[in-house]
């Protein structure tokens, strides 16, 4: 009997069947609390979302009403929060009790920080002693994105003279729209200098002006370059050694740019015996002539020496960076890398061209009268190279040469607004000036990618009055996002588009 009892006692001591049930029962308690606690977590997320949205509305209301006293700001914030917070009091009362919402308002310079907290009553977690869950929310609103640097990159090509059915030219509408945009930007200023604007008119070239002494980052290598040297068989009265089909240019009657073409070397007059090339097929003037010096002992053999025009005849335009034969591996034509004399292909390239834009660029400034005057000076003429306009707009927002705007202030948004009425037709190397050039589009696409990677926001505005050119894919892709691309079919739409852009970049923006 004792042996049987002992055996049963031993079996009971080593048995694990009952312990499983005990362990399960003990583990079930925290497991159920964790699962059910998820309900309280979901309630807290809902409350925080609703609080944040109500704070956003209150912050925007405060920012839109400047010069409020602290007491009035507090009152307005509370009213807007209450009007926009639609959560049952069962979830607590943010910032107070008995429905009296109190928002914490902190103003500093151009920013307003609003915050609020709620001790949300729990449901399941109160079982284990957690009666409330602290929920916090905050939001910040700023005026005009704090500070703005804006480049207006504006098409000044010949087609901008085209009018729509109302008789308004694209250039005229652009000027009106630009003036209105400048007014909006100026109105967003609370501290002088917080908003600065650059104006970059462009065609195939950009005109930087002819102020002397010339900057060290400018090269005249293309300006003074010579074409292929004529053979010694050419002299006074002999036919021009070049032709449009083979060389892309003919002769002019003298070294002045824009002279009418002629098929023969002058046999009399000031430039007798001079062989002067005209403009290339890609719109580059040769700035100079070859003289003709009779070889001693011969009657019909001449030596030729290139005599470049003085750089004082330069009209201020620059073309794409790179080499005369094409873009270089470093791709300076689509970058904002500062030019340096130690890297010749990085230098800005002086050029005289039939497409030289008449209006010089204006670097970043907050002198609104100068900006307005520059808009009024714009005239139309020449072929289209959106790339060079965009890149110089980017230079205006970048530290260092060529435009050296100074250090970028903290909390400054850089923006390019690019408007063009046509497709890319010509740059330094590609295109004929009349039809779309996919090669120029390729350079444009790379410049857009690089500028956006640098943090610049790009608005792109395409104007096609006739509606025959179709969508400008390269401009559409250049815009930072689809909301920043505008495809227009009338001149007056330019005004509407610029107003929309102005509202977007000057309106208050909740930043966090």
Q: Any key phrases for this structure?
A:
4-stranded antiparallel β-sheet; 512 residues; alpha/beta; 10 helices; 3 domains; 21 strands; elongated; Rossmann fold; single chain; 6-stranded mixed β-sheet
Task: Describe the model.
The chain is α/β, with parallel strands linked by helices and 512 residues long. It folds into three domains: 36-142; 147-220 and 316-507, von Willebrand factor, type A domain (Rossmann fold), CATH 3.40.50.410; 224-313, no CATH class. It is 30% helix and 19% strand. The protein has helices spanning 2-14, 17-64, 70-84, 170-187, 244-247, 368-377, 386-395, 438-453, 473-478, 492-506, and strands spanning 104-108, 111-121, 132-142, 147-155, 195-202, 206-207, 218-219, 251-252, 261-262, 276-277, 288-290, 293-294, 302-303, 306-308, 317-319, 348-350, 362-365, 412-420, 457-463, 485-488, 509-510. Strands 17-5-4-18-19-20 form a six-stranded mixed sheet, with helices on both faces. It has a four-stranded antiparallel sheet with strand order 1-2-3-21. It has a four-stranded mixed sheet with strand order 6-15-16-7. The longest helix has 48 residues, at 17-64. It is elongated, with a radius of gyration of 36 Å. The N and C termini lie far apart (81 Å). The mean pLDDT is 88.
């Amino acid at each position: 009997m004792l042996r049987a009892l002992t055996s049963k006692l031993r079996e009971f001591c080593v048995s694990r069947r009952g312990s499983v049930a005990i362990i399960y029962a003990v583990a079930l308690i925290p497991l159920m609390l964790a699962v059910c606690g998820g309900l309280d977590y979901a309630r807290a997320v809902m409350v925080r979302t609703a609080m944040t949205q109500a704070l956003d509305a209150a912050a925007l209301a405060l920012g839109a009403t400047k010069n409020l006293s602290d007491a009035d700001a507090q009152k307005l914030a509370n009213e807007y929060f209450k009007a926009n917070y639609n959560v049952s009091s069962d979830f607590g009362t943010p910032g107070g009790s008995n429905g009296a919402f109190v928002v914490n308002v902190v103003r500093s310079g151009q920013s307003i920080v609003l915050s609020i907290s709620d001790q949300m009553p729990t449901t399941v977690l109160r079982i284990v002693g957690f009666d409330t869950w602290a929920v916090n929310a905050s939001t910040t609103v700023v005026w005009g994105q704090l500070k703005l640097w804006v480049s207006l990159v504006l098409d000044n090509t010949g087609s901008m003279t085209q009018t729509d059915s109302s008789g308004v030219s694209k250039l005229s509408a652009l000027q009106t729209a630009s003036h209105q945009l400048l007014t909006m930007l100026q109105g967003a200023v609370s501290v002088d200098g917080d908003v600065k604007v650059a104006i970059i008119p462009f065609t195939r070239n950009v005109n930087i002006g002819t102020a002397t002494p010339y900057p060290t980052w400018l090269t005249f290598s293309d300006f003074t370059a010579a074409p292929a040297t004529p053979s010694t068989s050419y002299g006074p009265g002999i036919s021009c050694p070049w032709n449009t089909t083979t060389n892309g240019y003919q002769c002019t009657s003298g070294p002045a740019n824009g002279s009418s073409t002629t098929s023969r070397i002058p046999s009399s007059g000031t430039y007798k015996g001079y062989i002067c090339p005209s403009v290339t097929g890609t719109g580059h003037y040769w700035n100079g002539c070859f003289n003709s010096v009779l070889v001693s002992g011969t009657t019909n053999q001449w030596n030729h020496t290139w005599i470049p025009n003085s750089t004082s005849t330069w009209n201020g335009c620059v073309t794409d960076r790179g080499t005369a034969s094409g873009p270089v591996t470093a791709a300076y034509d689509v970058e904002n890398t500062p030019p340096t004399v130690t890297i010749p292909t990085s230098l800005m390239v002086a050029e005289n061209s039939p497409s030289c834009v008449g209006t010089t660029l204006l670097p970043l400034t907050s002198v609104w009268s100068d900006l307005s005057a520059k808009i009024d000076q714009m005239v139309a003429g020449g072929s289209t190279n959106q790339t060079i306009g965009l890149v110089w707009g980017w230079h205006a927002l970048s530290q260092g040469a060529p435009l050296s705007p100074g250090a970028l202030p903290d909390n400054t948004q850089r923006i390019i607004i690019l408007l063009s009425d046509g497709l890319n037709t010509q740059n330094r190397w590609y295109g004929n000036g009349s039809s779309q050039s996919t090669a120029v589009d390729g350079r444009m696409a790379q410049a857009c990618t690089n500028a956006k990677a640098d943090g610049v926001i790009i608005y792109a505005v395409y104007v096609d009055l006739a509606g025959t050119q179709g969508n400008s894919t390269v401009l559409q892709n250049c815009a930072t996002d689809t909301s920043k691309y505008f495809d227009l079919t009338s001149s007056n739409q330019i005004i509407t588009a610029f107003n929309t852009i102005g509202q977007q970049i000057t309106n208050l923006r909740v930043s966090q």
